[in-house]
């Protein structure tokens, strides 16, 4: 267990670049160097992480730990990979109020917000090319994005996901059982039986139904003074978000903003997202910053509850389907439904790119110039994300000193 923990901790300290980069780090370490699993098994885990909602790269890491050391091995992998970003974002949430008053700090944060525009725009570009390859999927994306821009409520996004799944099951699957967008290519002609783990599925469903019922009741738990009820409400907010995020990474942004946006200012939310760009590890660790902000009297407790809640659904679903992804990938309607959902979340992310990211960061012409230069640099030269972080921070320092 310690070996699993420290291997993932070493990666969590240096894993900049988002889910795609994390998956590359995992392959180099656990397939090529340590040989904990072969290429085919690893490819299956990556495909399954795309199939399920949740934090894609963290789900792959959890599955590697699970296959290596059982359930405790999966937990050890999660703790090791997430701990550095959790600690950094918790500290930034707790201390930021003290140093935000300095002009140079404000300038650096503003520069990181501009970097967020660049990174999310790139994510939209890549996901559009991957998931929106035909007319039905593009229509799903446009409709979803337009509706979310007008009304960003979580329940409405949930309805849109169901709508996209229904459209996809009819219009975005073929008779061979292969995904129209090509995400799943390792499909055999003979269907394998689907053997789900119903114990973990029951736990996932129990938490999700409880969260939906609590949040839909619209009870004002904050006015009761009951700490236990408030923590359950916080857990429910982040658990529901974690259950709905297909695509992982930056896709969590619009759902989180819709879920917890009433509890903090849009500027503070975007500040947390900008800071999350500058730390290694999974993007879902943003929950640590938001949990600490929402639970200001006990920030560590808030950060722990929010982080556990947002990661838990994806891990439970990984346990449900870990042994049956081949069987699932051979059902055309299921694959088509996932294709539709992925197109829908591209629309969500496109809407989030405009509001709150673009509108909260680009306020002057020079800001747009920096966004264009950063996006051009990223697409043409493809530098490591850490280089972009340092460049934008350097600009912030220079702006703050002049």
Plain-language structure description:
The chain is mostly helical and 402 residues long. 76% of the residues lie in helices and 0% in strands. The chain is built from 17 helices and no strands. Helix 5 packs across helix 11 and helix 5 crosses helix 16. It is globular.
Strand content: under 5%
Elements, N to C (H/E)? HHHHHHHHHHHHHHHHH
Give the N-to-C terminal Cα separation. 51 Å
**Number of helices, where a helix is a run of at least 4 consecutive DSSP H or I residues:** 17
Structural topology:
Blueprint: H1 2-12, H2 19-33, H3 39-51, H4 56-99, H5 103-131, H6 135-150, H7 154-171, H8 198-216, H9 227-244, H10 252-260, H11 266-277, H12 286-294, H13 299-321, H14 325-328, H15 332-361, H16 365-381, H17 385-401
Keywords: Cell membrane, Membrane, Transmembrane, Transmembrane helix
Main location: membrane
Organism: Shewanella atlantica
Characteristic key phrases:
mainly alpha; 17 helices; globular; 402 residues; 0% strand; single chain
Briefly characterize the structure.
The protein has 17 helices and no strands.
């Amino acid at each position: 267990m310690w070996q699993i923990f420290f291997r993932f901790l070493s990666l969590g300290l240096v894993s900049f670049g988002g889910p795609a980069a994390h998956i590359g780090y995992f392959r180099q370490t656990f397939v090529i160097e340590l040989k904990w699993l072969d290429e085919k098994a690893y490819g299956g885990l990556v495909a399954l992480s795309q199939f399920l909602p949740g934090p894609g790269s963290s789900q792959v890491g959890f599955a590697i730990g699970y296959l290596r050391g059982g359930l405790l091995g999966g937990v050890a992998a999660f703790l090791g990979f997430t701990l550095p970003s959790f600690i950094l974002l918790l500290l930034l949430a707790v201390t930021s109020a003290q140093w935000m008053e300095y002009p140079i700090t404000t300038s650096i944060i503003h520069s990181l917000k501009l970097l967020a525009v660049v990174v999310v725009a790139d994510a939209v570009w890549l996901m559009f090319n991957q998931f929106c390859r035909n007319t039905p999927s593009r229509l799903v994306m446009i409709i979803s994005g337009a509706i979310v821009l007008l009304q960003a409520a979580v329940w409405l996004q949930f309805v849109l996901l169901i709508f996209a799944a229904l459209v996809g099951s009819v219009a975005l699957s073929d008779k061979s059982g292969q995904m129209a967008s090509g995400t799943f290519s390792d499909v055999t002609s003979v269907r394998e039986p689907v053997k789900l783990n119903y114990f973990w599925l029951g736990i996932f469903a129990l938490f999700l139904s409880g969260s939906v019922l609590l949040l839909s009741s619209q009870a004002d738990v904050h006015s009761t003074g009951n700490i236990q009820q408030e923590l359950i409400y916080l857990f429910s907010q982040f658990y529901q978000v974690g259950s709905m995020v297909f695509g992982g990474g930056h896709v969590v942004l619009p759902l989180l903003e819709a879920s917890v946006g009433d509890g903090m200012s849009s500027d503070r939310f975007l500040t947390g997202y900008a800071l999350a760009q500058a730390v290694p590890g999974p993007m879902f660790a943003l929950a640590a910053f938001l949990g600490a902000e929402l639970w200001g009297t006990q920030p560590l407790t808030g950060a722990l509850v929010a982080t556990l809640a947002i990661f838990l659904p994806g891990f439970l679903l990984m346990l449900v389907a870990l042994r049956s992804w081949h069987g699932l990938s051979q059902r055309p309607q299921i694959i088509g439904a996932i294709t539709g959902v992925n197109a829908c979340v591209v629309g969500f992310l496109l809407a989030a790119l405009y509001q709150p990211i673009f509108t909260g960061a680009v306020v002057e012409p020079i800001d747009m110039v920096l966004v264009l230069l950063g996006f051009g640099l990223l697409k043409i030269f493809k530098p490591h994300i850490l280089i972009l972080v340092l460049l934008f921070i350097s600009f912030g320092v220079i702006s703050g000193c002049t």
